[in-house]
């Protein structure tokens, strides 16, 4: 799994969500991202990792996406891990 492949898969997953208004609305409600913010957010690896995480957390959604995309469902998790930052910031003063 390469970073480019992971980003491509995440964009494909976001497109899959956007093709169905109910799926997209559930995603937006869960993430708190507004419809007008998606384009800018999609440029951020952390957001793309979140798209894949969201997908992986819902097995029926994961399976339908994987079948449509012709990928192994486990590759969705691998791609999400590839896009997560190596370090975590803490909100500690």
What does this molecule look like?
By secondary structure, this protein is an all-alpha fold. The protein has one domain. Helix content is 71%, strand content 0%. It starts with a helix and ends in a 10-residue tail after the last helix.
Write the layout of secondary structure elements.
Elements: H1 3-18, H2 21-31, H3 38-41, H4 45-57, H5 59-69, H6 73-83
Helix pairs in contact: 1-4, 1-6, 4-6
How would you briefly describe this protein structure?
By secondary structure, this protein is mainly α. It has one domain (3-82).
Provide tags for this entry.
93 residues; mainly alpha; 71% helix
Determine Rg (CA atoms, Å): 13 Å
Please indicate the count of domains: 1
- Describe the global form: globular
Query: What structural class do helix, strand and pairing data support?
Result: mainly alpha
- Amino-to-carboxy terminus distance: 37 Å
Q: Main β-sheet, in a few words?
A: none
Contiguous helical run count: 6
Q: Uncertain regions: pLDDT < 50 for 5+ in a row?
A: none
The overall average pLDDT, rounded, is 86
């Amino acid at each position: 799994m390469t970073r480019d492949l992971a980003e491509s898969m995440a964009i494909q997953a976001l497109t899959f969500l956007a093709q169905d208004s109910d799926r997209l609305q559930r995603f937006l409600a869960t993430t708190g991202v507004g419809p007008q913010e998606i384009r800018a957010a999609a440029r951020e690896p952390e957001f793309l990792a979140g798209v894949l995480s969201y997908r992986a957390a819902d097995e029926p959604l994961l399976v339908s996406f994987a079948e449509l995309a012709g990928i192994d469902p486990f590759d969705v998790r691998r791609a999400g891990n590839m896009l997560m930052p190596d370090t975590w910031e803490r909100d500690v003063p």
